[in-house]
Amino acid sequence: MFFNHPQGGCDEGPAYWRQAGGRLIEFLESMDQLFPEAKQYFASHKLIHLIGEYSYKMRITGNWFVNFADAIPLLTYPPSLLYKYGQLFEDQVMKQYAAFMMTYVGKGSTKEQFLRSMIDGAMGGDLNEFWNFVITRKGIEAEKAEAPEADLVWLPDIQVFNVRSKKTVAEKARFFLAGKAGSNRKYKVAHFALCCKLFPLFADESHNHNDVGSFILFQGGHPVLIDIGVGTYTAQTFNSHRYELFYMQSQYHNCPDINGVQQQAGGAFTAHNASLVHSSSSVHFSADIAGAYPKEAHVKHWTRSLAFDLAANSITLEDKYSLEKHLHPQAVHFITPHGVKITKTAAGLHLTGEQINVQMAVDWKVFGEVKEEVKSLGGDHHLTHVWGESVKRFTLHTKDSHKELSGHFAFKFEAGH
């Protein structure tokens, strides 16, 4: 999956790094045992190093990660795999990251319980991971536990970015913003050839959701606007009814409905002209997401931009559009954890929770009342262990009087007081 992406990114998201980039380093070690100087050869390849670094470039805070597509937001990587990248490339950052991740492995358990869980895992079939832990543990424990925080990441090949507030901003007010363009190519099976034999390989934008133009927002290390993620894998997850699952649909991502129409799955439904421009004081991401919608949306262009003013510590979401017809009010969806309280003010919306305080500017001349929905997660442990029993969606619809075929609207996010 990674070798198709020259920046080392993975369109399956960081949750799959363990089974892709993580397994790669194990494979390279095996090759080194078979062929003299293999290690030196692999260490000269920048792409392999970038694949290792991807494991922390999508980290938000603690063990929270950007979770577009079939990714989960709370991850714990095997520290041994991170450490092995540090060894191969003499990368102290990766070694310290391994020590940091070690603090999350077996968290809340005694030393004896932790070791027993590792042994049970080995007996359950992952003997290789257990052995990696055994041979790297002393080296990892000798390192300072520290996780790198990338100020800005832009992976144009998979059209994903993230950026965080300057460290001069008070910690509780700091924002982390991640966004994507990409495509809605369906999860499907392709093939690759090895020794003249075809083997199945998942292709396109793997484990895809209909989420072109979606984004994630954290404040002070806590979720404000989220990607729900994916539920427990079942047959439906990978058959023709995949996109009937609500968390696959654009209406349950931070995306707009255009003329009452959601995004559609398929290779033809994709973003265009994705770009990111940045300076020391600002980051500006934009993409035309109209191509992600079927013809029933009657949209010519819908350019979504996310602008982070680093000097002011504010984020502006802007949608500029051109329609063929106006059939229904435009709707903009936002997904939050259940505990976020949404209060209407003269200037917009006030989003508050135990750990967050965000002012969201809304032009009430353009938008009508905010509509809230509590969405049950159906008792699916894969989701509830992160978000609880439900999440919340709030939606803003343009007023009936707002029927222009072209125009724009914007929302500004700032730390509340």
Overview of this structure, please?
The structure is a single chain. The chain is an alpha+beta fold and 417 residues long. Helices cover 21% and strands 31% of the residues. The protein is built from eight helices and 21 strands. The protein has helices at residues 21-34, 38-43, 46-57, 79-88, 92-102, 111-123, 127-141, 381-387, and strands at 59-61, 64-65, 152-155, 160-164, 175-180, 188-194, 197-203, 215-219, 222-225, 256-257, 272-278, 282-288, 299-309, 314-323, 331-337, 341-344, 348-352, 357-361, 367-376, 390-398, 406-415. The strands form five sheets. Strands 11-12-13-14-21-18-17-16 form an eight-stranded antiparallel sheet, with no helix packed on it. A five-stranded antiparallel sheet has the order 3-4-5-8-9, with no helix packed on it. Strands 10-15-20-19 form a four-stranded antiparallel sheet, with no helix packed on it. Helix 1 crosses helix 4 and helix 4 (79-88) packs across helix 7 (127-141). It is globular and about 70 Å long. The two termini are 44 Å apart. The model is unreliable at 188-205 (pLDDT under 50).
Summarize the structure.
With 417 residues, the chain is α+β, with helices and mostly antiparallel strands. It contains eight helices and 21 strands. α6 runs antiparallel to α7.
Helix proportion range: 10-25%
- Count of DSSP-assigned helices: 8
Distance between the termini: 44 Å
What is the string of SSEs from the N terminus onward? Answer: HHHEEHHHHEEEEEEEEEEEEEEEEEHEE
Arithmetic mean pLDDT: 89
Structural class: alpha+beta
Q: Characterize the overall form.
A: globular
* Count of distinct strands: 21
Radius of gyration: 22 Å
Strand numbers in spatial order across the main sheet: 11-12-13-14-21-18-17-16
Model regions low in confidence, pLDDT < 50 over at least 5 residues = 188-205
Largest sheet: 8 strands, antiparallel
- Beta-sheet strand percentage? 25-35%
